Amino acid sequence: VQLVESGGALVHPGGSLRLSCAASGSTFSSYYMSWLRQAPGKEREGVAAFGRDGSTSYAGSVKGRFTISKENNKNTLYLQINSLKPEDTAMYYCAAASRDFGLVPSYPFWGQGTQVTVS
């Protein structure tokens, strides 16, 4: 599966963004999908993911502000980000796997990332 993220931007604190991830090359609905991010000098971390039964999970630092969603008929994953904080500044990646990794950044398929800067 090929993944292409978009929607990153420079925004002020308190602002909102919606990131998109377009998938191609395989059956989108059969994959477990996740959003992860990596800030400069920090390890990659999972921020939101779909679980086995379609449930969602979020990192504690983003819960209540980030929402993961998807449209299977459009092969697209989304991340709605509200109330942005400077500490949300990072490269955001979508990732896919044939099994459930949850928020653990061990997914085998990754996009190239989209930059979110909050300043």
What is the compact description of this entry?
Helices cover 0% and strands 49% of the residues. The protein has 119 residues and is mainly beta. The strands form 2 sheets. Strands 2, 4, 5, 6, 9, 10 and 11 form a 7-stranded mixed beta sheet that branches. A 4-stranded antiparallel beta sheet has the order 1-3-8-7, with no helix packed on it.
Description:
There is one protein chain. By secondary structure, the chain is an all-beta fold. 0% of the residues lie in helices and 49% in strands. It has no helices and eleven strands. Strands 2, 4, 5, 6, 9, 10 and 11 form a seven-stranded mixed sheet that branches. A four-stranded antiparallel sheet has the order 1-3-8-7, with no helix packed on it. The mean pLDDT is 94.
